[in-house]
Amino acid sequence: MKHSKYWIGAGVLSLSVLSACGSGGGDSSSGGGDGGGEEENYEPDSSLEIVAPAGAGGGWDTVARSAAEGLEKEEIVDQGIGVVNREGGGGANGWSYIHNQAGNPEYSFVASPPLLLVPLNGQSEYSYEDFTPLSNMIADYGAFAVTEDSKWDDLNDLFDDMKENPDDITVVGESSPGSMDHMQFAKIAAGAGVDPSTIKYVSAQDGSALTNLLNGQADVYSTGITETVEQVRAGDVKVLGITAEERLEGDTVSEFPTATEQGIEETFVNWRGFLGPPDMSDAEIAYYEETFKELSESDYWQETRQSYAWEENYMDSEEFEEFLAEEEESMQDLLDEVGIDRGGE
Amino acid sequence: MGTFDGILSGLSVAFSVQGMLFVLIGVFAGTFIGMMPGLGPISAIAIMIPLTYNMEPTVALVLMAGVYYGAVFGGSTSSILLNAPGISGTVATAFDGYPMAQNGQAGKALAIAAISSFAGGTVSVVLLMLFAPLLASVAIVFGPPEYFALMLLGLTAIASLSDGSTIKALISAVLGLMFVTIGMDSQTGTTRFTFNNSNLLEGIDFLVIALGLFAIAEICNLIVNRKKTIKNQGNIGSLKLSKQDFKDMSGPMTRQSFLGFILGVLPGAGATIASFIGYITEKKIAKRPEEFGKGAVKGISAPETANNAATSGAFVPLLSLGIPGSGTTAVLLGALLVLNVPPGPLLIEEQPDLFWGVIISMYIGNVFLLILNLPLIPYIAKVLLIPRPMLISLVIMFSMIGVYSISFSTFDLYLLLAFGVIGYLMKLYNFPAAPLILAFILGGMMEESFRQAMTIANDDLTVFFTRPIALSMLIVALLSFLVPIIRQKKTTSA
Amino acid sequence: MFRSANKMISMILIVIAIFYLYLAFQIPAFATGMFTASTMPKAAGFLLILLSIFLFFIKEGESEEDQEKRKEAGQHIFYLGGVGVMILLYITLLEPVGFILASTIFIFLCSLFMGYRKHIVNAVTSIVFPLTLYLVFTQLLNISLPPGILPL
After folding, report:
1. Most C CBs within 10 Å: which of B48, B390, B407, as the mutation test of the C interface?
2. DSSP type of residue B386
């Protein structure tokens, strides 16, 4: 409340300065600026609300909660910040909630590749174009793991076998077909010349994906890098390749070869960023860009990135939007190749 | 560091002032959150995560374990008193807990739940301590064919979940299977029966069905009988258990501690399935199965022992393999990552004080739970003395907030009301609700594992017969389905 | 009409099963194998028809108690329906009006409708309970509930 009064006050003040200038003499230069203070600098007048379009404890929730914690701890935002979980529809419920908040710039939500994939699969009526990209924060990459005693030693071994006998090789992942774990594998495999529609993908939740790799039911586990580290250290599995452009830094992860260095020119980025409701003004976007930039550079965020093994990948609103457009196009092409066309947008 | 040194350093962690204090806080907070409508162990732990950011990993994990236990226990209170299961693991507790409470023995029912939880928790922690590294290999034995057989085995118990007509029980179960097919199909991502409504995309939440069929349907019953009062009001808070009660409890407490623990070890099976299977097996072997459903001591003891035992069982794959076998342990895994303790196969070896510290705190947590809760029971039980007209309004609000705090959508509230109506009609026409709930829980996993098995085996049905564990479970399933029917036929024709 | 409740229910269930099956046959098949997204729904639909047919023909005498139960429910239909309508209003008002206010109104009116006559106790309860729960959820547990029109 205090803040809104302050800003109204500032607005009135700058208006009066302007009018004073106007009456004083015709050619007042840039001093007064154009427009009131509210237009130039947006500052929220009530607490910010970050929506995690999923339940407590998941990936989106973790990003939302640590971002909120960071923004408060580092005193980047004076207003309070609330995290709201809007679960359901693989994100669709949360997205439609935000879409209804047009004109309320206090709202934003955490997003990652499912924001592109879910609408492409025809499971949400809103796509990224219905929102305002604010900033991307981090990147994470996929890893393809096999058991330690597996006959494959690199991705090319695996993909060569796959080209010959696709029915003999089961790929397991957590997400549903057409979503992340499936698509990241399909993308790299397609880059190596495997027909993506022949990939035998099984979706398994509740930790049974890794179980099924260990007990031999599945042959390849498509997942995130973090999920594989401890298993590799214990010597139970080996990682054939990761989807990053370059090798990562860190104790175990630096040993993971990229697909690129094995001659497969493909990457897959699991980006995590923030978007807001549709039709936000430039001033509002600028406010968020600045806020998230400051968070991204803070000590708190650096520590958070380290503990979750996230890579820094800040993008401002414009870069983020371009990136999303490219990603969407490549995902659509890939889904067509895999043979999933559900008539989504 | 050897195992013995590990246990010693674990003891020193757990019995430190700090360790004890955080177990106590955790247990208390967990019980409190678990009693809140709709909030179970998952939300309880998620709520605690920000508090642990700057804590020492062992202390944080001790706190989490306490919260986990407390929340599982706290959930049974609303099941018993209001027929309103706050979480899926305590649905089976309502079957006999609510009738007993309605007989004016709410205190006794809560005491049985508390003591059984204690037994299940304690025995399983000992098992966890002795066998965790060994059981790691058991946790991964089950592939899709085995899960399919296990779910089918659970489903065949449906006939035994009702006292009336088998046909009606089976119809209930099929309706449960139909409800679980609503939403996105896990194996293809296709939407089924969603009518293009995004609220239905992830399916109907379990709690909506459970609260609708149990709590709201029971509210209808209370509305009709709103002028009546509960029997034996004077003894409502009494904890007194007779010698016979303890005798009745001893069987389920021993058996279900083991069975529940094993089911908890299997990723994906968890406390809910353990509690149902616990209830069913005790009913099957009971001398007087007809008492079940009417307030039987064993009927409360079995699911409460089993769900607590399963809770510690779920720690086996988490701590020994880094595999989260349930939604709750998945959140715990996230919490461990934040603390820079990535759980994996090397955890026990590299961080023995953490591993043993947690195990010993779990044991202390159980003791605290019991001493904390027994004295509170007489007061909690008094909820039932609230005049019925007021109780009706409060339970409705309680159920509403429970569902709303999960999805934050009013759509689910309308669904809740709809299931309440369905539940009441089922009550009036003698269709049992338990088979519907059981089929809803097991059906989804059954279909998923069947289709996974078929994809992996390229549609070769023989996988179910060539794998010994799957095959033997299928045989037991067939027998447990046919034997009661044949027996029934014989008695009716005779 | 039908002679017994079972026959009537059996017919209703068959209609439901047919509608369900109709939808099940519309599910597109993406997988190439034998078992697709529509396999289990189809099986469940046919099973329901089969069981309903059994239900139609079983001769199961209903006890007096069962019929009494339904008769009694019929007598109270006004109250059952009334509470149902109140719940509907409660749900509709929850988000626009806010959790505290909607719950307060609901608890007070519903208890009154059910025959609770101690108005002061009723008023106090219907304010204290929602307020406490609201504070516990939003402040202690960090779970937001709709604040609605109250200036919180």
Report:
1. B390
2. S
Is residue C147 one of the residues assigned to a domain?
no
The tokens of A292 are what? Answer: 């998230």
Please answer whether residues A344 and A119 qualify as being in contact, where contact means their C-beta atoms are separated by less than 8 angstroms.
Answer: yes
B335, B149 Cβ separation under 8 angstroms: no
Can you give the residue ranges of every domain in chain B? 3-493
Averaging pLDDT over each range in A187-201, B327-341, C134-148, which range is the top one? A187-201
Q: In CATH, what is the architecture of A146-262?
A: 3-Layer(aba) Sandwich (3.40)
Segments forming the whole domain that contains residue C124: 75-140
| Residue A270 three-state SS | strand
**Mean pLDDT, to the nearest integer, of B349-371?**
84
The reply to whether C17 falls in a domain is yes
**Chain A CB contacts of C142 below 8 Å:** 82-83
pLDDT, tens digit, for every residue of A135-175?
999 999 999 999 999 999 999 999 999 999 999 999 999 88
Q: Would you state the pLDDT for residue B2?
A: 62
For chain B, the residue count is 494
C67 within some domain: no
Domain boundaries, chain A: 48-139+270-338, 146-262
Q: What is the mean pLDDT of chain A?
A: 84
C95 CB within 8 Å of a chain B CB: yes
Give the ipTM: 0.94
Q: Which residues of C touch B390 (CB under 8 A)?
A: 107, 111, 114, 116, 122, 125
| Pair A74, A294: CB distance under 8 Å | yes
Domain shared by C135 and C89, yes or no = yes
CA atoms within 13 A on the CB side of A297: 7
Q: Is residue C151 part of a domain?
A: no
* Cβ distance of A83 and C142 shorter than 8 Å: yes
CB-closest option in A86, A207, A210 to B408: A86
Q: What is the pLDDT of residues A198-243, one digit of tens each?
A: 999 999 877 788 889 999 999 999 999 888 888 999 999 999 999 9
Q: How does pLDDT run across C86-112, given as a tens digit for each residue?
A: 999 999 999 999 999 999 999 999 999
Q: How far apart are CA B58 and CA B71, in angstroms?
A: 20
**Cβ atoms of A300 and A70 closer than 8 Å:** yes
Same fold, A48-139+270-338 and A146-262: yes
Backbone angles phi, psi at A173, to 5 degrees: -155, 170
Rounded mean pLDDT of B429-433?
91
Which residue has tokens 């959140």? B331
Torsion of CA B68, B73, B79, B84, to 10 degrees: -30
Low-confidence spans in chain C with pLDDT less than 70: 1-3, 30-32, 60-61, 152
Class of domain A48-139+270-338: alpha beta
Residues of chain A with Cβ-Cβ distance to C144 below 8 Å are: 82, 84
Per-residue pLDDT tens over the stretch A239-248: 999 999 999 8
Q: Can you tell me the distance from the alpha carbon of A259 to that of A243, in angstroms, rounded to the nearest whole number? A: 6
| pLDDT exceeds 90 at position B249 | yes
What is the per-residue burial (b if ≥16 Cβ within 10 Å, else e) of B473-491? Answer: bbeebeebbeebeeeeeee
C54 and C90 inside one domain? no
- State the chains in contact with C (3 or more Cβ–Cβ pairs under 8 Å): A, B
Tally of domains in chain C: 2
Res B304: pLDDT: 95
Between A38-52, A129-143, B279-293, the lowest mean confidence (pLDDT) is in A38-52
Nearest to residue B333, comparing CAs of A111, A58, A169? A58
Q: E strand or H helix at A147, and its extent?
A: strand A132-147
pLDDT of A33 > 50? The answer is no
